[in-house]
């Protein structure tokens, strides 16, 4: 059973591939063989499955590459820092291994923070940005209970809860506006290790990209759910400080925008990443 979606948006399997980057084997989902390269970076407690309703919608305008980040999903789970900066450098090496030119980069939640760090640390690899439910400044992005989970003692107590479906339903109740997590998505949190879950969360809470946003010089689209109860929608406003950024807030939508509102989300991304070419019309004399 997959996540609920609009009847107008059909789910299609993306091709499953693997790639070795920095000695780490990452499982990826790919879609399309033509168009602009598009890297899709999932967030905390997720995997490449986050993008399963978007990938097929991008054909033939983009070549989508969606990895399970190291430490998550089916990818290797090495002893690693799992910080936002580490993930950004790993993503840059992934792009170098796959594409000769810069790619459009979309990130969701923690993935948006990684995408921003990637654009700042490796600007030559990024041609445009799509930031979905972004975390820009971790100190005020989350509710108090999420911040508490990052405390040393509490995160050690909370980790075993990721192995219980009942506890997972409580921990992920704010991922969607209706609170109805699909069982397959629910179990994605359980696929993370203690190191990847805790270190990435601690790094995310310590992240503050606001002072450097004016340095970004590529087109940016920011999309947030107006009913997001996990990450404060004000984070999207902060991301709007990127020069020329366009901010779209979708009323009534929660944190998992790509799966909760694909009928609104997909066209925004498709038209921004690769606008349709208008047919040439000769001048009328």
List the helices and strands and how they pair.
Elements: E1 15-21, E2 24-31, E3 36-41, E4 62-67, H1 84-98, E5 103-108, H2 110-121, E6 126-132, H3 144-148, H4 152-158, H5 165-171, H6 183-186, H7 194-206, E7 220-225, H8 234-239, E8 246-250, H9 257-260, H10 262-273
Parallel strand pairs: 3-4, 3-5, 5-6, 6-7, 7-8
Antiparallel strand pairs: 1-2, 2-4
Helix pairs in contact: 1-2
Overview of the structural elements:
This protein is of the alpha/beta class and 285 residues long. It has a single domain (15-273), classed as Alpha/Beta hydrolase fold, catalytic domain (Rossmann fold). The protein is built from ten helices and eight strands. An eight-stranded mixed beta sheet has the order 1-2-4-3-5-6-7-8, sandwiched between helices. A hairpin with a 2-residue loop joins strand 1 and strand 2. The longest helix has 15 residues, at 84-98. It is globular. The protein starts with 14 loop residues before the first strand and ends in a 12-residue tail after the last helix.
Approximate shape: globular
The count of domains is: 1
Extended strand count: 8
The CATH architecture:
3-Layer(aba) Sandwich
Largest sheet: 8 strands, mixed
Q: Taking all residues together, what is the mean pLDDT?
A: 86
Q: For the record, what CATH class applies?
A: Alpha Beta
Span between termini: 59 Å
* Individual helix count: 10
Oligomeric state as shown:
single chain
Q: What is the succession of H and E elements?
A: EEEEHEHEHHHHHEHEHH
Radius of gyration: 18 Å
Unreliable parts: 1-7, 278-285
> Helical residue percent?
25-40%
Structural class: alpha/beta
Provide the spatial order of strands within the biggest beta sheet: 1-2-4-3-5-6-7-8
């Amino acid at each position: 059973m997959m996540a609920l979606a609009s009847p107008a948006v059909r789910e299609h399997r993306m091709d499953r591939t693997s790639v070795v980057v920095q000695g780490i084997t990452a499982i990826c989902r790919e879609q399309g063989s033509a168009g602009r390269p598009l890297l899709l970076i999932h967030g905390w407690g997720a995997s490449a499955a986050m993008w399963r309703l978007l990938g097929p919608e991008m054909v033939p305008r983009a070549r989508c590459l969606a990895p399970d980040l190291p430490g998550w999903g089916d990818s290797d789970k090495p002893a690693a820092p799992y910080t936002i900066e580490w993930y950004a450098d790993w993503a840059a090496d992934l792009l170098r291994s796959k594409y000769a030119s810069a790619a459009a980069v979309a990130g969701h939640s923690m993935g948006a923070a990684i995408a921003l760090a990637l654009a700042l640390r490796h600007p030559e690899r990024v041609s445009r940005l799509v930031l979905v439910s972004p975390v820009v400044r971790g100190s005020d992005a989350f509710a108090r209970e999420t911040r508490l989970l990052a405390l040393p003692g509490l995160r050690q107590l909370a980790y075993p809860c990721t192995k219980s479906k009942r506890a997972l339903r409580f921990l992920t109740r704010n991922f969607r506006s209706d609170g109805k997590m699909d069982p397959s998505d629910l179990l994605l949190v359980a696929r993370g290790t203690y190191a990847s879950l805790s270190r990435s969360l601690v790094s995310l809470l310590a992240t503050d990209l606001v002072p450097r946003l004016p340095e970004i010089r590529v087109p940016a689209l920011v999309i947030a759910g107006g009913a997001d109860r996990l990450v404060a929608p004000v984070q999207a406003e902060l991301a709007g400080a990127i020069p020329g950024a366009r901010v779209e807030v979708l009323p009534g939508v929660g944190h998992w925008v790509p799966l909760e509102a694909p009928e609104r989300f997909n066209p925004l991304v498709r038209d921004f990443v690769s606008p349709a070419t208008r047919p040439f019309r000769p001048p009328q004399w």
